[in-house]
Amino acid sequence: MRPISGRRWPAFAAAVSKAVPTPSRSRSRPARPTRFAAFSTAKSRSKTRFRSFSGRSRNDAAVERGARVSEGFAWGGPAGRGLIRACPDDFEVEEVLGHEPSGEGEHLWLWIEKREHNTVDVAGMLARAAGLHPRQVSFAGLKDRNAVTRQYFSLHLAGRDDPDWHAADLPGVRVLSGQRSARKIQRGRLHGNRFTLVVRGLEGDRDEIEQRLLCLRDHGAPNGFGEQRFGGNNIARARALFAGQLRRKPSKHKRGFYLSAARSLLFNQVLRQRIDNGSWNRILEGEVAMLDGSRSFFLPDPADPAIRERCERLDVHPTGPLAGAGDSPLSGEVAELEQAVFAAEPDLVLGLQRFGLRHERRPLRMRIGALEWSEPEPNTLKLAFTLGQGSYATSVLRELIDYDLSTESRLGSAHGRGL
Q1: Is 292 a catalytic residue?
Q2: Is the model's pTM score more than 0.85?
Q3: Which of 19, 203, 263, 360 has its CA 20 to 30 A from that of 391?
Q4: Which positions, given as ranges, span the membrane (predicted)?
């Protein structure tokens, strides 16, 4: 194991800078994008169209390239077909925070169950009910809108009694419990999420489906960003934002979605390349590896038998880029692969740098924890599993089945309300 040493890409940065024209200050409205066709399905098992992690945007070549970032499959393509999110109860998410409230203090932690609301909207509802500014309500992570989800929110109530939640107008929201704490909930500080999903109208050989589930349990899945990350037109909006062509200045919340979508697209493109060359679950020379369940990373020696053994048991993972400014510790073929992806999307790379994002790393592979499955009724598959922070249940499902979304869920994701 070697310590990380920074390595700059001056030649690459210069080349990208020359490739990007000075952003226009035009006030014209950007071209209306088509809806992302994320995770599209086919009518025939024999002619299954591959799904994309990101879907489609405008008719420019760069977006077309980004739309197909994950046509390949790590484990040989779907083993069956089915419908997900037929109703909110078919998709449950329970936050695994990893720490508990202290029992006393000026912050009230609420354990909330919500239906068909996104996390930000629920935070606003709680703020209004308690007479607080929205900034005084905190949460660890965003959860799906088209689902039944349970998570913690904290409210800053210094010198105040707890509100009467029974009298509060909170449609679609249940306050399950509340406890005081000395600290507020920190954004991004959580271990992960526990998912319980139901697949209806299941088709496919049951033995093949079970073998795929065993493979996913033992070997993990590609850690791509799911379609919820991209909404209906977040990539097109990110490009317009970077070019100075948005008609109205977006809110900080919306701008965050656009920046995240741009980063996610680049990561998924690198992941696709690593799936295609068979290295998404292997440590390569010049690789940055990450410890499972943490953000700690290091430069390993891929020839070390101990490193190979730890990688095989999912203790360490290869990583991909979350683009931004700063040094890259990569070298060799891994650095060349990521540079090639970045060079093909110079507007996104430089836009992310101009907006102050720093280069970070994300595991290319995810461990699927405590995976359980059953068939509670004919042609119905029930799944339960735990994923680490930032990993998507739909990225697990695409390795198992060729799934379709209910109409309501598809529209929700298309308009960016799937978080």
Answers
A1: no
A2: no
A3: 203
A4: none
